[in-house]
Amino acid sequence: MKPALVISARDNVATALETLERGRAIAIDGATITTIESIPRGHKIAIRAIAAGEAVVKFGSPIGKASVEIAPGAHVHTHNVESGRGRGDLQATAPRRSAKGAEAGEPANAGDEGRLAEPLE
Amino acid sequence: MTSETRFLGYPRPDGRVGVRNHVLVVPTVICSAVVAERIAAAIAPTGSALPHLAGCGQLGPDMHLTHDTLAAYCRHPNVGAVVVVALGCEQVVAQQLAEAARAAGKPADIVAIQSEGGTVRATARGITIAKGFASDLARVDREWCDASSLILSVKCGGSDYTSGIASNPVLGRVADHLVDLGGAAVLGEIAEIMGAEHLLAERASRPEAAARLLRVVSRVEAEAMALGLDIRGTQPSPGNIRGGLTTIEEKSLGATHKGGERTPLADVVAYAAPITAKGLTVMDTPGLDVESVTGMVGGGAQVVVFTTGLGTPTGNPIAPVIKITGNARTAEAMKDNIDLDVSGVIGDTESLDEAAGRLFEQVLSVASGTFTAAERLGHNEFAIHRRNPTI
Lengths: 121, 391
Known about the structure:
The complex is a heterodimer.
Chain A: E1 4-5, E2 13-16, E3 25-28, E4 31-34, E5 44-46, E6 55-58, E7 61-66, E8 75-76, E9 81-82, H1 99-103
Antiparallel strand pairs in A: 1-2, 2-5, 3-4, 5-8, 6-7, 7-9
Chain B: E1 6-11, E2 17-18, E3 22-27, H1 33-41, E4 47-49, H2 60-75, E5 79-86, H3 94-103, E6 108-112, H4 113-116, H5 119-137, E7 143-146, E8 151-156, H6 161-180, E9 184-187, H7 197-202, H8 207-225, H9 238-242, H10 248-255, E10 265-269, E11 279-283, H11 289-298, E12 303-307, E13 321-325, H12 328-333, E14 340-341, H13 352-367, H14 373-376
Parallel strand pairs in B: 3-4, 3-5, 5-6, 8-9, 8-12, 9-11, 10-11, 12-13, 13-14
Antiparallel strand pairs in B: 1-2, 1-7
Helix pairs in contact in B: 1-5, 2-3, 2-11, 6-10, 6-13
């Protein structure tokens, strides 16, 4: 078993198939990447330098953007990758309903559009 | 892949084929759920109840969804006969559910707690009816049926890093193979398509299906964003994050592999609505496992294949749910719940195609009557999706 798996040639991260201790040298596509921190099994390791704001790519598609510069060999996870989807917390306009309101039992959705009303033929 | 393309099933008068022959005991409302469960338990495992939390106190769309989902189960090919258990004053109409079953060629009868004179009498009468149905069904033999009559629900839950690189690609190959044979697959969980919708839309066999998929994904994303919160922590879940999944995009890209690598997207349907297209249908379900499986089985899926990384027990009252994992530790730690271990794909001891061959054989075997782990353990989770408050 390889220590890490790169799924697509377009990817800039690999998946650790075992826990990789700091300083572990692994062969990726003929190059050697040395881990600069411990990578838990199943977590991702940068195989190239990724600039802040640059797309993190896995499965050949973007999975989010680097929130800080990520060095080759670094652990790539929630501390340095931001999702671009479902980010109600980042909306420029005030949210229609606050989290507090939702917790207080305000309906999450009572609109006309919806799982039931969506005209699907 | 095995050359076998048949299984032993139950052809139904409406043209569909069942893989089980349950006596379904359906409470119209939460108030009759306990009586329904006691009736079903008296003829287990042929008897199966659909306890649910609704059936009254609902307005408009939710009311219709409750009725339509229950009616879909009454018509389902895995059901041979139906006992409807009413209270007497509720919104869901027992006669309409019984009529749905009869229209699909199944015997059906009704017990009402108020008119029967209470729990004890209603339970006793229900058991008498259910036993009669069960003894009739026991005389029905399975017949050879073609795999093209199967609708396979593809599902994942408790995902980790192994799901996207092992169990989901293995399941996707089985979905592709079944569609090649003339069958169908259904994929739900719209939130877990978010970030991978472009890949499914590119595979749409007609532009309307692609447009509808993108519209449904946008709607679910807008609903989540309307709460003013970050979806992370719900999607992906805390367990997903511990397992190495960082964002919903990453989870979705791994998850959509289970819908096949090349099968065209043929249709997008509403929750629990009939699946009529061959090829891949996307159903508008939430990501919550039990609500999602409940909807896809309601749509007509006879068999569910459920991939998991962390392990999960979910079953269904009428459809067998096959659990597969690519995580060798989970296969060992939760072996009670796991039907198939495909971790060899990650350990380089088995190819994706070889593992898919084993899974397809398992699907045909389960369709022919072999119990899944979830069936052996009595896992029969059922939850109808709802959107609005109880009134």
